[in-house]
Write a structure and sequence with these properties.
By secondary structure, the protein is an alpha/beta fold. It has helices at 68-73, 101-115, 127-138, 163-167, 173-180, 186-197, 206-220, 225-241, 248-254, 274-281, 297-300, 302-315, and strands spanning 28-34, 37-43, 53-57, 79-84, 120-125, 143-149, 259-264, 285-290, 344-347, 360-363, 366-372. It is globular.
Length: 418
């Protein structure tokens, strides 16, 4: 039995509640009880009836609040729900203590099967990207499209700033971090995660920072927080070491759904170079490169990510009647000639690495967008590693020597997520 499958000391019934979780205006939060797990589900009523369903899955140390900004941007296109994975956000730990990637994927599948909402437009960030890749490979009947923001897929050369995340998986490290950071305030932790996860921490508003601090204070009251972080980090490392048909890269090749890949050039946790391998591995992929984004592009640039997703729907003939057809407007990568399959790259800074798209035109999101019919891939820096791709809560050391909180605070004026 894997160490990530050991029974948890705190089951869903034994886990105490801290202060109330923040719910942004227009959102709803409900609890869904399923065999072995209880999931907190955040939703935003769609702009009109009959829109196709979508499901958003956060990364390590994150929560459904990470998706609030994007959900609002897309409420005229999809009927969106975002879950708190077991042990994160407002969801208690799973009864069996299984925090492996497969265990989390099983929770997503169980929710979709029970809700009868599939097939859905499936979104995943970081660890959530690994989870949703596995879901899409194993249950193609549940997935219409797949959108991955900085997915945590195996890589050999880990960035120095990602090392603390990987170290969290080692026995005893979590306890050491906890003791070392005992005196850190919630403000310090939030500043650390902002520096670690955002390409430009200055995009976080004062209101967003206050909301993030409030959520961090709530999480620090949860006795299972470190257990969930440690076991999920270990589960991600375990998934990175798997070979054969269980390899995440092999499963990426099996995904049938049209896939949108979003990578930030300033990502300190998932190497931007892995965008090239991902563009080739997913058989029907579109790659969006954001020059100023970090690890959580859907929080930093929700308008751009939303526009790229609408373009994906238009490409695949899935844009609902009455939806905004001019999908690549302000804040978007631009549009152009497209084919129904194959890999394409939108490089939003016009400074493409070798092998990426050529041909430029103006793009509102940045100083130009390069669009190509197929991305040429150089995967010389590929492979598996134990380097993580997520922020690890209150222990990962970010910039300025502060410890990173569980997830990045929001951008803009929405003041959601923390």
């Amino acid at each position: 039995m894997s160490s990530t499958e050991l029974p948890s000391l705190l089951t869903a019934t034994a886990s105490p509640k801290a202060s109330a979780v923040r719910v942004a205006p227009g959102e709803r939060l409900r609890s869904v009880r399923l065999p072995g797990i209880t999931l907190s589900v955040r939703s935003r009523p769609p702009a009109r009836e009959g829109l196709p369903p979508a499901l958003y899955v956060h990364g390590l140390g994150g929560s459904s609040q990470n998706w609030s900004a994007l959900m609002q941007e897309l409420d005229e296109v999809v009927d969106g729900e975002a879950i708190d994975l077991p042990g994160f956000g407002d969801s208690p730990p799973p009864d069996d203590g299984n925090y492996s990637v497969t265990g989390h994927a099983r929770a997503v599948i169980r929710h979709l099967d029970a809700a009868g909402r599939g097939p859905v437009h499936l979104f995943g960030n970081s660890l959530g990207g690994a989870i949703t890749t596995r879901v899409a490979a194993l249950r193609p009947d549940l997935v219409r499209t797949l959108t991955l923001v900085s997915p945590a897929l195996p890589e050999i050369l880990v960035q120095r700033t990602a090392v603390p995340t990987a170290m969290l998986a080692l026995p005893g490290v979590s306890a050491l971090f906890t003791r070392f950071t005992k005196g850190w305030s919630a403000e310090q932790r939030v500043r650390g995660v902002t520096a670690l996860c955002y390409g430009d921490p200055g995009r976080v508003t004062d209101e967003g920072f206050r909301n993030a601090v409030e959520e961090m204070e709530r999480r620090l009251q949860l006795p299972y927080m470190w257990d969930a972080l440690t076991r999920s980090a270990r589960g991600l490392v375990d998934a990175y070491t798997l070979g054969g048909q269980h390899s995440l890269w092999r499963q990426a090749e099996r995904v049938l759904a049209p896939t949108l890949l979003v990578y930030g050039r300033r990502d300190q946790l998932v190497g931007y170079r892995m965008a090239q391998r991902a563009a080739r591995s997913f058989r029907d992929s579109r790659l969006v490169s954001l020059p100023d984004a970090g690890h959580v592009a859907m929080m930093e640039y929700p308008e751009t990510v939303a526009a790229a997703f609408r373009e994906l729907l238009a490409d695949t003939g899935q844009l609902a009647d009455g939806a905004e057809s001019a999908s690549m407007g302000s804040g978007s990568p631009g549009s152009g000639s497209r084919s129904g399959s194959g890999s394409r790259d939108w490089d939003l800074d016009g400074d493409s690495p070798s092998g990426f798209g050529s041909g430029s035109r103006s793009g509102p999101a940045s100083a130009g967008a390069a669009v190509s019919g197929s991305a040429s891939v150089d995967d010389s820096s590929e492979g598996g590693s134990v380097g993580g791709g997520d922020s690890v809560g209150a222990d990962s050391v970010g910039a300025d020597g502060a410890g990173s909180a569980a997830e990045g605070p929001p951008s803009g004026s929405r003041g959601v997520g923390s």
